[in-house]
Design brief:
330 residues, seven-stranded mixed sheet, 12 strands, disordered C terminus
Amino acid sequence: MLLKPNQQIFMDTLFIYTRPKAVYQLALAMVFFCICSCSPPSRFGKLKGCGFISSEKTSNQQDTAVVHGSYKAINIVTLPEEKLIIPVIFHVVYKSNQENISKKNIEKEISDLNRDFQKLNADTTDTYPQYRHLIGNPNISFVLADTTFYGSPDKGIKRVKRTRRGDLYKSDPIIAPDRYLNIYSGKIGSDGFTYTKPWNNPATDAIFLYYEWVGGEYRLLTHETGHWLGLYHIFQDGCSKENDGIADTEPQNDETGLGSGCNSESRYMKGNTCPGRTLPMFNNFMDYSDCRVMFTKGQAAEIRKNLFRYRPNIFRTLLVSRPVMFKKYE
């Protein structure tokens, strides 16, 4: 479930972020390195900044510097395919022993999330034939943070006895959402939810799951993480031209409900088909069906674009080294 602003329930571009001072220092270091180490043109021909990221550029790319707050962004108009690694803090907010879910269930949920976000799920073959060529790969890995918390020996897992009614984060505040994906498990009023464009409000920038669904292979966390990364439901705004804003998802009139059977010939599916369109994309992770198995290529590109644009400090990658700051919280 995706919550719109003020509700209580819920172009490919690479942005490399560095602080302005660090850019200046890095530039000086590069000049010094070039003066001391670069061989003369007679040996290697015309040098391009000592080869610094020149291998990542093509004639179709352009570099532009723009300032976002205290960060400078280098806009390279091609998004890399490299795997992005995001650290996770999993908050278990419980009142009863049943709500205090096991480490095994949490690790199973994270494993399933990685499978879906790296297109490693074998059931992509269940995708309706006309949509198989559209299957995309966000290529993101989620890892429990390498930090421990008071009262829990397991890295990346924070266990807190619920002390207040209402939202889970009121009992256990969100931790550094610019550096971690915060996931909450507890007794909530829905199966799961995430706020619209959650990066706009650090106080609620997290994913919230009903504790009974964690580790059960329901694809709920995959769906909510899609929202956390900026995706809407594929049935957003029904059959309107705007729908979810992704070009390669099929517009559909309404959600594909659980228990629909995922039968393309069913009356339920045909009732969701928009005028003049083909069958709904009921296999998409951003629908509600029992047979969610895929993101589209357009959704994968949108996910990565939003990460670079709105969450530049939350991931690591081999192309852009940005160490994650791990701390011990109590």
